[in-house]
Model the fold of this input.
Amino acid sequence: RKEVEQDPGPFNVPEGATVAFNCTYSNSASQSFFWYRQDCRKEPKLLMSVYSSGNEDGRFTAQLNRASQYISLLIRDSKLSDSATYLCVVRRSSYKLIFGSGTRLLVRP
Amino acid sequence: DVKVTQSSRYLVKRTGEKVFLECVQDMDHENMFWYRQDPGLGLRLIYFSYDVKMKEKGDIPEGYSVSREKKERFSLILESASTNQTSMYLCASTEASSYEQYFGPGTRLTVT
Done:
């Protein structure tokens, strides 16, 4: 079983839609949580950290449920430029990040 | 802006060749990492370094070695390339006190 599991998608949504991705992690000792974004043929970049109380950054909302060991990302009012792969990332120790294999989002006109 | 550069975007090597992948960062970051990314498997950590000449094995170090002689440069070495090492290789760096990793553009290595 993978330490971080994501639905690979693709999620195919129209512009303006709201879309949500979930991610589950297996190690209850995981310490920090992140969402990274990876555009096609590009490197991953940090989208946002995920805090226990939930946090919002513009159209993006991230939530953490430690009891159920899952993390979510909600995107409101989807734009064409949101099309990318979203990587769920868990910090296992001081240096080590564990990456999920990603959820692909396609936003169509 | 943090810049992480990798020596090649695309590389084709033959089985058994010794391969060097170079990574340079310009932000004086203490930590540097080498990952490989394969479809359906995500990014997997090969090695990381938290200081010059210091290194630790990641989750899949077999068949690889690393070198960090200067703070800004972290090299990944495939001693004898094999076809199962065909992959996208990504280098990353981060400050000691931060968890945000900055990635290079990647090297797509094909071993034939």
Summary: Chain A has no helices and eleven strands. The CA atoms of residues 36 and 46 of chain A lie 4 Å apart.
